[in-house]
Amino acid sequence: LKLNPNSPDIMRTMARVHMAQGEYPRAENELRKVLEGNPKDLEARAALGDLYLAMKDAKRAEAEYAEVKRISPKGALGYAKLSGLYLNQKKPDQAAAELEQALKLEPESPLLISSLVQIRIRQKKFAPALALLEKRLRENPLDPLSYNLMGQVYLAQKNAAKTDEAFQGAIRAYEKIVEK
What we know:
elongated, mainly alpha
């Protein structure tokens, strides 16, 4: 800290520490300093949204996440952050729509895929979840994540045979990957 206390990396880290300790004004101050130096700092902007969300100020959190999306429309971060916010607000359709946009930008992201499938399971919208996973399996038959998530969908549908079949597919895929 004494070497370069104005380093954006250090200020963002300190903001996270302050946030974890519940020192929200100090966290906000650190993030504002970073953004004064670089208003397009996506990490600081997203962290500011996270801070507002922790402070239960959804409107300001949404504004920061939307700004991340505006600054970097070809990056998944803003979409993913907005999805989390909407999920927190019990708006699963909006959350899923943001994740679908994020997946167009980062189609191989396990976190985005898993999150979208989990939302669809909670909504009991099994067909779109299965369609996404079946498409992924057509593209890569050795995708254990897709088999695993498919098993979770079938489990939610209480379809024991298909659940077992999907989880067995995940095991076979892992075994083939390990063989290579």
